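Annex B. Sample input.
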Amino acid sequence: MPIFITMKTPIFKNLLLLSLFVGIIAACSKKEDFTSQDDQQIEEIQIGLTFRKASLRNQPVAFSVFDDEGNEISENVSFFVDGNLLEANSFVSPSEGTFEVYAEYDLNGSVYTTDIETFSVVIPKRKVIMEDYTGTWCGYCPSLDAAINEVALLTDDISVVAIHNNDDLALAIEPTIREEFGVFGFPSGRINRTTPWGSALNFPISAVTDLAGNVVPIAISITTQVSNGTLFTKINVASEEEIQDKKLVVYLLEDGIVRDQTNYFNNDETSPYFGLGNPIPNFELDHVLRASISDAFGDPMTNTAALTDFEMNYSYNLPSDFVVNNLSIVVMVVEQDNTAVNTQHVKVNESVFYQ
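Annex B, continued. Sample output.
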């Protein structure tokens, strides 16, 4: 996934660096597998020096330079990484690290030099997907919310999805999801989709933190943009091993939704919800599942060679009552049995690269 680097020289001084999302919008949402080179959905206008912001160990990082009309400059271009001239337009590192890159090129008889920028080579780390099966009617459900908040204080290597039941935030697909994963009581937690998290009101924090940040083969990057009420999402997946028989799950979440929450801990002095009332008025609900942009259990991923980017693009028409500034995307790569291999999340209108 390219980033754009501003130029030191006047010819590029006033250029805007941007990515435009284009495509044919389906009635609700649409997906495109770009491993098949379908040219719908997302088109990036490249200007200046471009390259993938983050790559895996031993994954080639290709560099290109584009003029102000988006035409690639392919002659008389030299690329430098950490001050060393590359023999070609690509770079490979067997170990993780942060590197500096710039280019020199001849344009109409004048020599130009780009600014020095950085890119990363990473070893993929696991982000644990934590799913909270809940409802505003459920008086014991704040206990799971409290456990998730405690985990979040200890690690950033988590993604959270709150799946509501039997309230105005519940989706039509909720019973199907719940039945697939054997959720029969509330509150219920799941780790990496298929592993029950705790029981009754006991949710052991170490069950999550022992997994979070562990090395895994797969990394996920996400770029999102909202244009004219449509959310465009570009997802890239790369792996140190062949991607085979995997699925891609893409969920849209919303934070900051306010509802009255039934609270059976109002008289429990050990609870963070002690004394807040029953129900708790205007309780802020985060990570609320608002839509499944993919199939609820994932869209098939094309088998992809190791260290090769798999790309998928989606578009989704946002309902008018969704607050764009509070929206985020959670992406999961899952096995055929729905166990999550890795996950990633990002706020809408932002991007996150391989980590």
